[in-house]
Amino acid sequence: LSHGAGGRAMAQLIDEIFRAAFSNPLLDQANDCAVFPVTGGHIALSTDSYVVSPIFFPGGDIGSLAVHGTINDLAMAGSVPVYMAAGFVIEEGFPLRDLQRIAASMGTASRASDVAIVTGDIKVVERGKADGVFITTTGVGRIPPGVALSGDQARPGDKVLVSGFLGDHGAAIMSKRAGLGFETDILSDSAALHTLVAEMIRASGSALRLLRDPTRGGIGATLNEIAHQSSVGIMLREEAIPVRENVAAACELLGLDPLYVASEGKLIAIVAPQEATRLLQAMRKHPLGRDACIIGDVIEDPDHFVQMTTGFGGGRIVDWLFGEHLPRIC
Amino acid sequence: MHTLPGARDTRRAARRVQVRIGGVVQGVGFRPFIYGLARQHGLSGYVLNDGDGVLAEIEGASLDGFLAALRAAPPPLARIERVDVRDIPPDGGKGFEIRETIHRPGHTRMATDAPPCPSCLQELFDPAGRFYLYPFISCTQCGPRLTITRALPFDRANTTMSAFSLCPDCRRDYQAPGNRRFHAETIACASCGPRLSASTDQIASALCDGAIVALKGVGGFHLYCDAGNEAAVRRLRVRKNRPAKPFATLVADLAAAGLVAIVDPLSRRMLERPERPIVLLARRTIVAPSVAPGLRQIGVMLPSAPIHHLLFHALAQEARRRGTSAPACLVATSANRAGMPLITDNGAAHAQLAGLADLIVTHDRDIENGLDDSVMTVIDRAPACLRRARGIVPAPIDLAEDGPPVLAVGAYLKATICIIRGREAFLSQHIGDLDSPQAIRRHADAIRRMTAFLGVVPLVVACDLHPDYPSSRYAQESGMPVLPVQHHLAHLAAVAAERIVRGPYLGLALDGHGHGHDGGNWGGELLHVDGSTWHRLGHLAPVPLPGGDRAAREPWRMGVAVLATLGRGDEAGRRFHTVPQAARLAGLVAGGAFPGTSSMGRLFDAAAALLGICVRQSHEAEAAMALEALATAPRGLVNGYRLNGGTLDFLPLLAALSQPGMDARTGADLFHGTVIAGLSALTASHAARLGVRTVLLAGGCLANRLLADGLAGALRNAGLNPIMPRSVPANDGGLSLGQAAWARLCLKDGTRAGIPGYERT
Ligand SMILES: [Fe+3]
Ligand SMILES: [Mg+2]
Ligand SMILES: [Zn+2]
Ligand SMILES: [Zn+2]
What is the CATH classification number for the domain harbouring A47? Predict the structure, then answer.
């Protein structure tokens, strides 16, 4: 893939790759923008850029991740995602074959999720000005009437649920990066959660307080955000937190805490206590919520701590990390 | 030495002075002392406590004698910092009185808790006295102080003793000039004072049965068991989930201490200090092996409260009844679950200690300020403090130089806070590791309390450079200008502040981990400090740190890291056959998956792992302590280190230690000797180049006596002047002082660039 002289032909080629992969009536009109009707009510809009290394990882690639990620951000507001836009920044020299693979994977993901990619943009930059390929996806969703999920609605007494095993995506990425990949069987959990969310809203209605997808920073970061937004504390039970054996082993080897490792196909739900069981049952009926469970409670706490009870009757703080896991012990 | 009032004196013209006495003058019998002194000299007037200390007006003829005596022989627990005398008009009044306290905030000092004085001790065992066997006996010269104080001035109403009203006998003593309990705010007896929930006979009987007893003491609950009963000590280890960390012990007296450990004259003086610290001594074999498994040292303390004396008294009687010999020594450990703060509250004790102790003994005097035991050791032939707590706090450290007020919040482990006001640094007691919500709240609470108590508005809050310590977050969210101070710079600045080192110096920080300015993992650093500028002259050659904090807990990881670095990763699986992941980790290290660390602590871990001494540790520094315990005669390995400018590489040493057939004892000697040689060579080379002779030493590794003593000796041999911390812990417990001192230095030098937001104020 080259940039500069002969670039126009190349750009056209790329354009065709994506058009073919994403094909849908709106995109196929080939206008400068996609035009679609809206009805009354609220629209959700979300955008996210994806820069992941490696670009292809066990269980997914940057393309499917970019589709799922934005769908999930829309879904966490309780919306029904409808359309998506995609922007690409591609480094000169990036293999065309890989681009085709990414486009195909995005097309598959968008069709499977029933969220069409209706417009987009492509830029090719000089070698060294980017790292392979960066993808930005922007999505819109319709919020069904009566749904108003937001991060400030957790109340003391509420239950904290997760939809399944945590940390699969981050562990897959890091194992691959560290060179562990060949001997582990950890797959990214990258998936679109909007149909699960629809089931959850159907089951619990307004008893469902909020949803979050624990992506970067894992549930450690996400729960701290919730605790601060809602001015509450959260008490987790260590033994209730679902982590796959191979993920736990990889984390242990690398010295990572699964609480801070990203998931890309899981969600955290906070629900009024009396609805927790019903919600759990509804989640478990959905393929993406089969392993859902309750991991803790929302509590009153002026310091907004996220804590975890451990085996020995003690508790430890689940910190809000600034960045990477830095060593702490002197 | 006091002159009695004579006829000649009274004929002289009367003079009246106002005397203001500052320092530790409340709760130490100062007013009764003034009262007695005034009466002795035939003077009239009054004395009272106020927010600034003691205020007196004295009128009469022999004022000079009075003032001389005041300065010459104050009460033993008092520490006079200033006496201001000014003349005021005489009013011809008669008599002398102790007046009501005047309440207003000021600069007086809180007295520290003191062990029973000789007079109280005698009364405690006097069957004819009214304090016979009373566990809460005290007087103006001894008893609880800081632990029961809610506010100053130190009046009973401001303490948790306010719950107990005086019986007629106690009231009489309290009001009787010349009585040792004249105005003793803690006065109490069996008929009016606090009570234990069980008799000392019950406690003694339980201990002789091998039971674990939780007992509320002066500053918090302790767990006790017979240190000679291996089964009891093991039970305590299991219940406390503390497999190997050494326990401290309590002995009845010096004679008993001599049975447990080697007590030389210096150790004796340390044991007998009023703070009654735990002193680390060379152990004898009398105590059960599980008290300090595999170690050559043992922590010993003498009784710090009447109840301890009563306990040994009751134990002796119980043993006589049973026809056995009494336990010479008790395990005495803070009654908290691992990682949790000290328990001070009766309710919390019952809730948290139910499965831990066979018998829980409380009393009904509330503990306002919980205080751990202080810990001391000997470093380079002089006493050094490892933990500042009971009997030491809240006395300030004199910095001998005025400056702007600053607050420092410490780091992560063994957290303390520090406020500097004027020339004094107030270093808080040991708060604990900031890894539990309770500890983080205690930390914030300590800052609030100390700031209010000292009436200080800090200009800057100093914290560690690490962004994720709860203390750093506190600083960032405080709204004050924040100065992050690099961990090892703070370690060294603490020594400079405490030992009053002003000139340029070299500093050797030998530590576990600190976040570096380059974002790296630091821990074996040579810094050059000149005023408020500093730079990193040298450091240990980085070794991969495979797994962050996990590597700090699992020395096998450092062992694997070294093997892989030596190109011998294939040995990892065989050497660490109890660790299924060793071979995989070696592959990851070889693939460059992990960042490096220049930590001295991790180097100890690597050596201990390679010598097969310690694969996983259950408590901090377990591997290093085991390695130290094995060494007897440190000697350097020829070509054991490579010195390349600022980088000191011990890989050749580690290669030798990991040779098949290397004996652990030999390895321990070689490790200590070579590290000492390498560090002193690194330091000496830079000292010569820069023309600086002063070398400060700090960091957690200084708790290793072989290393500290050896290094001090080697540096002296190189013509340098090594300076160690003394009254401030070399470990992270001293960091807040260093942070505060550094912040103040930056403010004074005008190097404020590093303090974002400072210009706003
Ligand atoms: Fe440190
Ligand atoms: Mg997002
Ligand atoms: Zn006394
Ligand atoms: Zn009484």
Answer: 3.30.1330.10
In the β-sheet with A80-91, what is the strand arrangement from edge to edge? A42-50, A133-143, A80-91, A116-125
Mean pLDDT, chain A cut into blocks of 10 residues (330 residues total): 58 82 89 86 95 93 98 97 96 92 97 95 90 96 93 97 97 86 80 98 95 96 97 96 95 93 97 97 98 98 93 77 81
Q: What is the least distance, in Å, from the CA of B125 to any CA of chain A? A: 42
| Same domain? A134 vs A166 | no
Q: Flag whether A84 is in a domain.
A: yes
B219 vs B184: CA distance, rounded Å = 20
Chain B partners of A315 at a C-beta cutoff of 8 Å? 436-438
Beta pairing class for B359-361 and B213-216: parallel
Instruction: Report the catalytic residues of B.
Output: 31, 49
Helices of type H across B272-419: 306-322, 346-353
The CB density around residue B619, as the number of other CB atoms within 10 Å, is 14
Domain of A167? 159-317
The domain that contains B745 carries what CATH number? Answer: 3.30.420.360
Give the dihedral sign, CA B529/B534/B537/B538. Answer: positive
Of A253, A320, A327, the CB nearest to B549: A327
Q: Please tell me whether residues B546 and B617 are part of one structural domain.
A: yes
CA A91 to centroid of ligand 2, rounded, Å: 23
| Other CB atoms within 10 Å distance of the CB of residue B89 | 8
Q: Are residues B585 and B454 in the same domain?
A: no
Concatenating the DSSP letter of every residue in B674-723 gives HHHHHHHHHHHHHHHHHT--EEEEESGGGG-HHHHHHHHHHHHHTT-EEE
B372 in helix, strand or coil?
coil
Please give the residue range of the domain that contains residue B127.
110-195
* Tokens read off for B249: 């012990």
Number of domains in chain B: 5
CA–centroid distance, residue B149 to ligand 3 (Å): 18
- Tell me, what DSSP letter sits at residue B342? P
Tell me the CA–centroid distance for residue B136 and ligand 3, in Å: 10
Q: Residue B462, Cβ neighbours under 10 Å: how many?
A: 32
Tell me the angle at which helices A62-75 and A194-204 cross, rounded to the nearest 10 degrees. 20
List, for residues B260-319, the tens digit of each pLDDT value: 999 999 999 999 999 999 999 999 978 899 999 989 999 999 999 999 999 999 999 999
Q: Which ipTM did the prediction report?
A: 0.89
Q: b/e per residue, B654-686, with b = 16+ CB within 10 A?
A: bbbbbeeeeebebbbbbbbbbbbbbbbbbbbbb
Q: What is the 3-state secondary structure (H, E, C) of chain A?
A: CCCCCCHHHHHHHHHHHHHHHHCCHHHHCCCCCCCCCCCCCEEEEEEEEECCCCCEECCEEHHHHHHHHHHHHHHCCCCEEEEEEEEEEEECCCCHHHHHHHHHHHHHHHHHHCCEEEEEEEEEECCCCCCCEEEEEEEEEEECCCCCCCCCCCCCCCEEEECCCCCHHHHHHHHHHHCCHHHCCCCCCCCCCHHHHHHHHHHHHHHEEEEECCCCCHHHHHHHHHHHHHCCEEEEEHHHCCCCHHHHHHHHHHCCCHHHCCCCCCCEEEECHHHHHHHHHHHHHCHHHCCCEEEEEEECCCCCCEEEECCCCCEEECCCCCCCCCCCCC
Token pair listed for B334: 């803070």
If asked whether residues B561 and B699 sit together in one domain, one would say yes
- CA dist., res. B456 & res. B451, Å (int): 6
pLDDT digits (tens, 9 = 90+) for B711-749: 999 999 999 999 999 999 999 999 999 999 999 999 988
**A327 contacts on B by Cβ (under 8 Å):** 513, 521, 545, 548-549, 551-552, 597
Would you mind telling me the total number of residues written for chain A in this entry? 330
Residues B283, B320, single domain; the answer is: yes
